[in-house]
Amino acid sequence: MMELGKYAVAVIGSYAASIALIVVLVALSLWKSARVKRALAEVEARAVVAKAEKLNG
User: What domain range is 48 assigned to?
Assistant: First the structure.
């Protein structure tokens, strides 16, 4: 393992903070993606219903 000397706390803290931020960003991206997919499915379902109502008069 690499010897970090007096900078060990700063280096390890920086790595930990970077990893934590990456994990949070990935989690938020997945959550937002799922939300947008649900919203799109709702809009598409409403469009199908509206089209069917238009065709049936």
Answer: 5-56
* pLDDT tens for the 57 residues of the chain, in order: 678 889 999 999 999 999 999 999 999 999 999 999 999 999 999 998 888 888 887
CB under 8 A, 24+ apart: contacts of 36-41: none
pLDDT at 20: 98
Q: What is the DSSP string of 2-13?
A: ---GGGHHHHHH
Q: Which amino acid is located at 47 in the chain?
A: A
Q: Using alpha carbons only, how large is the chain's radius of gyration in Å? A: 24
How many domains is the chain built from?
1
Contact 4, 11 (CB under 8 A): yes
